[in-house]
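Predicting structure from sequence has reshaped protein science. With that in mind, we have picked out one protein's residues alongside their backbone shape tokens:
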Amino acid sequence: MNILQRLQSGPLVCDCAMGTELQKLGLNAGEELGELWNLSEDRVKVQSIHRANVEAGADVILTNTFGANPFKLAHYGVEDRLAEINRAGVRIAREVIGADGFVAGDVGPSGEILEDWGGTRTKEELYEGFRKQVLALAEGGADAIIVETMMDLEETKVAVSAAKEYTDLPVIASMAFSKVQDGFKTLWGVRPEDAVKELLAVGADIVGTNCGITIEDMVEVIRQMRAVTDAPLIAEPNAGQPEVVEGETIYRQTMQEMAGHVGALREAGADIIGGCCGTTPEYIREVSRRIEA
């Protein structure tokens, strides 16, 4: 049974943030590549995060491969280890969740800017980079591909197309929106309903949103998405807006406060609910409890 078939039986719980949890375990963000932990003794720390999420009730866990694309890996001089890092990420997650849950191969933004927006990268170059990553995730045994935290709709479409054309896995596409004066838009000015239509048109099986906004605001974004599609929707909010205190990024919203909005998120149309920056397994436990109630 794949994730789309399972969704016909009811909603699913996704996991919490990986990045902020890795930082709690010692990752020096910005100086160190967390995805390389997949290949070191620190893999046990990655696995401990997966385990905490599964024990909290997560049905879907994302691999520690968010930045394991050739563009970001090149900044650390390890682009030649792309396949190894991605396959290891799937293996680490599978060892925890087994065959009963779903491992989503995590694909984040390239970190590059397309020529369309004044950058130097072509769509063909991004496509080739994403192709390499999704192939490695599929070869590693992922159950689905999730393209997440995307701000450029065109880049997202490129990644989704690569995943659809080079794997036979369900593809999840999740974009980050910001709250602006006249609603919600991506960094490049795309509204939720327009993003949904274009992502479904290139083959995304599940669409949604993560990062960028609070769970309260995400309720409205999901509502707008549901108004234009019957496709499954995923929602992974942040634990409030980030604040920098003495050089450290913190998220003040408690997991209990967040969980109090899970019912509204479900009513708005979310089929998969997890968490992004600042969320913890404690939040996932609360989400699971409320979804099962």
